[in-house]
Every structure is written in C-alpha cells, then in structure tokens.
Design brief:
Blueprint: E1 5-9, H1 16-27, E2 30-33, H2 34-47, H3 55-64, E3 67-70, E4 79-82, E5 85-86, H4 88-91, H5 94-103, H6 107-112, H7 114-118, E6 126-130, H8 133-137, E7 143-148, H9 151-164, H10 171-187, E8 200-203, H11 209-220
Parallel strand pairs: 1-6, 1-7, 2-6, 7-8
Antiparallel strand pairs: 3-4, 4-5
This protein binds cytidine-5'-monophosphate (C5P).
EC number: 2.7.4.25
Subcellular location: Cytoplasm
Enzyme class: transferase
C-alpha cells in the first residue's frame, strides 16, 4: 500500500506552512516544506555570487546544494541547514523568496529537486506544502487542498510573521512583492501555481487557524 500523502498548495501567505505543520503534528505524519528547498537553492546561489539567470549554473547549484531539515527536540520550529549551516532565519526573508521564485521558473532546476522531494514520502504519511505538490510532485496523493486567501490578508499575515522575526518591512511593499511573486508563480509554463483538478479549494480569508486545520483533517477522515 502506498504511503498516504496530503498536498497543500497555494500562493504565498495563504497559511499553507502553518496549516501543513499543524495537520502533520495532529496526524503524526512527516512534513515537506518544498518552498524551503527552492529558497535554500536560491540562497546558496546568491551567497556564491552566481548569475541567477544562468540556467546551467542554477541547475548545478540545485544538484549540489546540501539541504537538510532538522526537527528540534524541544518541539520548536524545524531548522533548515544549507550546506551544513543553519540558515532558517535567512531563508525566510522576502528577498530570498523572490530569488527562489526567479530560479523556480527554470525547468532543469525543478527537475533536479524532484527526487529530494519524493524522499520525504515515508510511513506513516506525508503532508507536503508548496505550489505543485498535487499537480506535479505527488499527483497520486489521496487528498489535495488548494489554500487561498485575499491578497490583503496574505500580505498582512506575512507582515506579522516577518515583524515577529524582527525584520523591517512595510505592508505596502510586501503587498506589491507578494503580488509580483504570485503572478510569476502562476504564469510560468512549468509547474505553475494552480489547483489540481481533484483539489479541494479552501479560502481561509477570515478563518481562524484551527478552523482551517479541522476542515483539512475532515477531508482525510470524512465524518
Ligand atoms: O512557499 P514559499 O514562499 O517558501 O516558496 C518560495 C518560492 O519557491 C515560491 O514563490 C515559488 O516560486 C517557489 N516554489 C515552487 N514550487 C514549490 C514551492 C515553492 O516553485 N513547490
């Protein structure tokens, strides 16, 4: 029997990261934050001073960058290591998000990261969040969610997240950056941001986090 997968795709700030983590905790399943993988490659490329528009260099970077996730014993957030350095905080900035989105349009970069993402599928189950989890990476997933929220609400959530981390941002610039990144993610020819035909759409605008978690869990354990 294949290991069950729940995919949660959606635009930035839709809350997929938070929802995926909480649902994985409740189910006792593994978690794949695929955005962190694209961010890690983009970050490694920037740090190395590589030309982000050089598809071959970016593909080599995707193939060779060592990306590891470590669950803290104290139950805090997952740490992400890029070439053995804890880069969790650096990866979260909107600058790295924009770099990730720029290199994510390169088909050979995406292809280089497929096996890595598949390797997260281990018993008893996997919750995978990203843009193409239900459409490209795990098309056979039994449960697929496409999570959205209004652009205003997504910008406000990201604003709060970044503010809480002590990062200097303004709501207006964040809204513009998020809209630009979403437009690029949705318009790219390879693995664009779009719901799988069999995905359940959830608009989380104005919904408390626990209500979204319950809704997602109800799709796995239908009442
Ligand atoms: O989800 P997150 O904001 O961390 O993702 C950063 C960027 O990585 C996205 O804007 C998108 O361009 C890219 N990405 C992707 N496919 C995924 C996850 C993220 O192209 N499955």
């Amino acid at each position: 029997k294949p290991v069950p997968v729940l995919t949660i795709d959606g635009p930035s700030g839709s809350g997929k990261g938070t929802i995926a983590r909480l649902v994985a905790e409740r189910l006792g399943w593994h978690l794949l934050d695929s955005g962190a993988i694209y961010r890690a490659v983009g970050y490694a490329a920037s740090m190395a001073g590589l030309d982000l528009s050089d598809a071959d260099a970016m593909t080599r970077c995707a193939e060779t960058t060592k990306i590891t996730f470590r669950d803290p014993k104290d139950g805090g957030e997952t740490r992400v290591y890029v070439n053995s350095h804890d880069s969790t905080d650096e990866l979260r900035t909107e600058t790295v998000g924009a770099v990730a989105s720029a290199i994510a349009v390169i088909p050979s970069v995406r292809a280089a990261l497929v096996d890595k993402q598949h390797s997260f599928r281990r018993a008893p189950g996997l919750v995978a969040d990203g843009r193409d989890m239900g459409t490209v990476i795990f098309p056979d997933a039994a449960t697929k969610v496409f999570l959205t929220a209004s652009a205003d609400e997504r910008a406000r959530r990201r604003y709060k997240q970044l503010k809480d981390k002590g990062l200097a941002v303004t709501l207006m610039s964040l809204l513009r950056e998020i809209e630009a990144r979403d437009a690029r993610d949705a318009a790219r020819p390879v693995a664009p941001l779009k719901p799988a035909p069999d995905a359940v759409l959830i608009d989380s605008t104005g919904m408390p986090v626990n209500a979204v978690v319950d809704k997602v869990l109800s799709l796995i354990h239908p009442a």
